[in-house]
Design a protein that fits this description.
Length: about 400
């Protein structure tokens, strides 16, 4: 009797929305002895690194770096512009807006939340109305998430700026681009964003551990007018350090910097607009497959309108507990890990097992996405989920169009 083969040996594939797949070039760049942090290559490479990082964000203004994850940047950004008692207006399209709002609340802000549901982007008109109602200018910042990773909704940040301007309101525009930076097009200066936060482990393809707060000169003036900014979170010395250690208020994340250098080289060698176009096409392939499976009755895409979906992540649902069974199957049988659902149902609710997400951010290409789609289709076949059998072909047709 021949043994039933297990097909999980080989390179595993973590297809979750962060941490993303890391390029070998990034890993190789990090594999080295501890570098000197007082002189030489590492301090010398900083000006170009900062410049290349700002290019990814589309800003000529400032960036402060932190040893921390996305949550650290949420706090860092707020700590520089919000004083206890200030009001902030938060546009929610999923779990991550709530997380950032909770941080603001914990720092003493009074949070006005506008809910836009779990299936469609924020509506700038409602933001404009809320700002017009703030006749005594109490709202200090409008906070939004470009791509909410829990729902995979992408909002239009340029139109959000338009709404703030139309209301003639002085509030700062603060945007979470942790999922979208380096995946979905984002132009900080062109779109009039004052503060933008990002982290290393998603579109930037570096291990978790570095966070970035980009800020406009207008936001810098807000900071300058404030007293009592916590010295660790203060973005001013980090963005304009006199000494190398001031970039991080202490020891540098030495190996992450080498990894980030390699990742930025890859992004700019490919070209940022090409990086966006690659993500757009790969996402289209994912959607074509999922829409086909949806017709077959297997699952539902969380965001019905393609124009409202992110190119970095896709949130899906199936009849519970099928999503969990599918994730378990692809991981155990194929070495392919799919993302859990986030913020759609409490973890102790049986409904939780009906949600899952696909990460397609960063270092991904055509054959990986076809492997992801083919792996899911194989899983649905093995688990007898009716899906129509045409998802992989639909994705291949999109990929064939390059
Ligand atoms: C991942 C993510 C975060 C949180 O980042 P951590 O590094 O896990 O703290 C916040 N916002 C968005 C949109 C994200 O995708």
């Amino acid at each position: 009797m021949t043994a039933k083969p297990n097909l999980s040996s080989g390179r595993s594939y973590l297809a979750i929305p962060g941490p993303s797949v890391m390029p070998d070039a990034v890993l190789r760049a990090m594999h080295r002895a501890a570098p000197n942090i007082y002189a030489g290559e590492l301090p010398d490479m900083m000006p170009k690194l900062v410049q290349d990082l700002r290019r990814v964000a589309g800003t000529a203004d400032n960036v402060a770096m932190y040893i921390g994850n996305g949550h650290a940047t949420w706090e860092a950004a707020l700590a520089n512009v919000i004083t206890p008692g200030d009001q902030v207006l938060v546009a929610s399209t999923g779990r991550f807006a709530h997380g950032w709002a909770e941080t603001a609340r914990a720092l003493g802000a009074s949070v006005q939340m506008i809910e836009f549901g779990m299936h469609a982007p924020l509506d700038p008109d409602q933001i404009e109305t809320a700002l017009r109602a703030d006749t005594d200018g109490r709202i200090k910042a409008v906070m939004a998430v470009h791509v909410d990773t829990s729902t995979s909704i992408k909002s239009n940040i340029k139109d959000l700026r338009g709404a703030i301007d139309a209301a003639g309101h002085p509030a700062l525009l603060m945007v979470d681009c942790i999922a979208s930076l380096g995946c979905d097009p984002f132009l900080m200066d062109d779109w009039g964003v004052d503060v933008m936060v990002a982290a290393s482990q998603k579109g930037l393809m570096v291990p978790p551990g570095m966070g970035f707060v980009f800020f406009s000169d207008k936001a810098a003036r807000h900071r300058a007018a404030r007293v009592g900014v916590s010295p660790y979170w203060d973005w001013a010395p980090r963005a304009a350090p006199g000494e190398f250690y001031q970039y991080w208020c202490g020891t540098a994340p030495t190996h992450h910097l080498y990894g980030l250098r390699a990742a930025l080289d890859m992004i700019h060698d490919e070209g940022l607009t090409q990086v966006w176009a690659r993500h757009a096409r790969l996402a289209e392939a994912v959607w074509a497959a999922c829409e086909s499976w949806q017709e077959g009755g297997a699952l539902n895409l969380n965001v019905p309108n393609r124009a409202h979906r992110s190119a970095a992540v896709t949130a899906l649902s199936m009849a519970p507990p099928m999503a969990t069974r599918l994730r378990n199957w692809t991981e155990r049988k194929l070495g392919l890990t799919l993302g859990i659902g986030l913020g759609m149902a409490p973890p102790d609710d049986p409904a939780w097992h009906g949600f899952f997400r696909l990460g397609h951010m960063g270092h991904v290409n055509g054959h990986m996405i076809l492997g992801l789609i083919g792996g899911i289709e194989a899983g649905m076949t093995a688990l007898a989920v009716p899906h129509g059998g045409k998802g992989t072909a639909a994705a291949a047709t999109v990929i064939a169009g390059v």
